[in-house]
Amino acid sequence: MKYLLKAAVLMAAFTHGAAHADQFDFSYLFSSGDILTGNLIGTLDGTGTYITNISDVQIAFDGTQFLPDSTTGYLDIVAWNATTSTYDNSIAPVFSTNVALNNFAVADVDMAVNMNTSNYFSFINDPSYGQVAIAVNNNVLDANSNAQTAIDSPASGTWTITAVPVPSSLPLMLSGLGVFAAARRRIKA
Q1: Three-class secondary structure of residue 103 per DSSP
Q2: What are the tens digits of pLDDT across the range 73-82?
Q3: Cα separations (Å) of 126 from 52, 146, 150?
Q4: Domains in the chain: how many in total?
Q5: CA distance readout (Å), 101 to 27, 30, 125, 150
Q6: Which residues are within 8 A (CB) of 54 and not within 5 positions of it... i.e. 6 or more apart?
Q7: For residue 170, what is the enclosing H or E element?
Q8: 10 lies in a domain?
């Protein structure tokens, strides 16, 4: 039994040091006062600048949630291709803690195939096109039946992205092993 406990502690120590995905909350406050909020799962790189392995993105524009594509069940994530001036799903999207480095689009359909999206939020970072943040929500129409839209220079708005604190698995596992050891001692006594 002693060897089993040692093996479990060693395994916990090795797996704790490995890179793991975290949840991040993000928001962008447009200079118009519109706000886009959301969260995603990803891994912050060693520099603290880029979030990689992005998945499970959820977005709300002024409180209206973007719904996943009915055929895929998730929001599509693509990047802007500066060479072809199109959204491209073969390029990794860039989510960054630095707003000037962002290059992504999140939509309720595949933007690389269908630009007639109902809802999307994008940061385009293209030397010839410029830097622009765009949010469109066709679920909210104005008096003229135009979609709710916000367009900004990223430098004009406020971008925040922060990791959501979660309890570490190692202390949790070690406390469980401590309870197990205490219970084992009681049984022997």
Answers
A1: strand
A2: 789 899 999 9
A3: 20, 27, 19
A4: 1
A5: 15, 17, 7, 20
A6: 40, 41, 42, 77, 93, 95
A7: helix 169-188
A8: no
Residue whose structure tokens are 């401590």 = 178
- Three-state secondary-structure class, residue 90: coil
**pTM surpassing 0.70?**
yes
Model confidence at 4, pLDDT cuts 50, 70, 90, reads very low
Does the residue 178 lie in any domain?
A: no
| Structural domain contains residue 173 | no
The pLDDT of residue 103 is: 94
Q: How far apart are CA 43 and CA 22, in angstroms?
A: 6
Could you list the residue range(s) of the whole structural domain that residue 150 is in? 20-166
Kindly state whether residue 88 falls inside one of the protein's structural domains. yes
Going by pLDDT thresholds of 50, 70 and 90, the confidence category of residue 8 is: very low
Tell which residue, 96, 169, 148, 87, has the closest CA to residue 122.
87
Pairing type for strands 50-61 and 64-65 reads antiparallel
